[in-house]
Amino acid sequence: MDLIILKSAFLSYAFFIILHILIFRKLDKSKIVNGLLTALSMAAVFNFIIYWLFVRYFLYPVHYSVPALMIFFMVSFLLFILLSITFIMTILGMSTTSLRINLMLAIKNSGRKGISYLHLLKKYNRDMIIKSRLERLVTAGELEKKEGCYYYKKNITLFRLYSFALLVLTKIYKMPLYKDL
Known about the structure:
Elements: H1 2-26, H2 32-58, H3 66-97, H4 99-109, H5 117-123, H6 126-139, E1 143-146, E2 149-152, H7 158-173
Antiparallel strand pairs: 1-2
Helix pairs in contact: 1-2, 1-3, 2-3
């Protein structure tokens, strides 16, 4: 049974990776979060289907109770979700938000001719960085822009989940909360 749990979780994770690549190639940049959620949802359905196919064709002679099979599925699903979230937070999150990574990519992509400090400053000055980050937050649905002002939207987003996790950790570690200027 352990192999079925692992196989269904890893096959679903591979399906998610392939699906997100296909979706991101066709997607408008302003809908990246929607595309990611679509890929994750479709892969979750795939996880359910592949798990039950494995159970049907490989465990049919073995009789497990329905609650046991459901628990096995939940373990498979949890493993798939953890793998997917790890990918999203480490690979996608780091590559799109890390200034250091973007600087390194810009320098690498310039090739043998190199790139001047002034050219980097045009793209990575304070105003451009803030403008780019605010634009991403608005398109992701984290913020709302009205009449030149930005407002925090009160809906469930990845940032809100991250903020909640950070709040819990600061209480567990007995650390002061991060305070902005």
